[in-house]
Amino acid sequence: MRDGDGATDRPRRARRRAVENTKHVHIRRIQCVLNAISIVYHSPNPTPERPRRGRDFKFRDAAREMRGGRSRVRARHTTPTTDGRTDGRTDAMVADTTMVDAEATRPQRAEAHAPWVEKYRPRVVKDVASQEQVVGVLENALKTGNMPHCLFYGPPGTGKTTTALAIAKELYGPELYKQRVKELNASDERGISVVRNKIKTFASQAVGAPAPGYPSPPYKILILDEADAMTGDAQSALRRMMETYSKVTRFFLLCNYVTKIIDPIASRCAKFRFSPLAQETMGARLKFIGEQEGLEMSDDVFAMCSKHSGGDMRKAITLLQSAARLFAGKISGASIVEVAGHIPDEKIKKMYDLCREGKFEEAQAHMEDILRDGFSGLKILDQYSDYVLEADCSDEVKAEIFIKLGEVDRFLAQGADEGMQLATLVSTSIKALAKMASAA
Question: What's the rounded mean pLDDT across residues 51-76?
Answer without folding.
Answer: 47
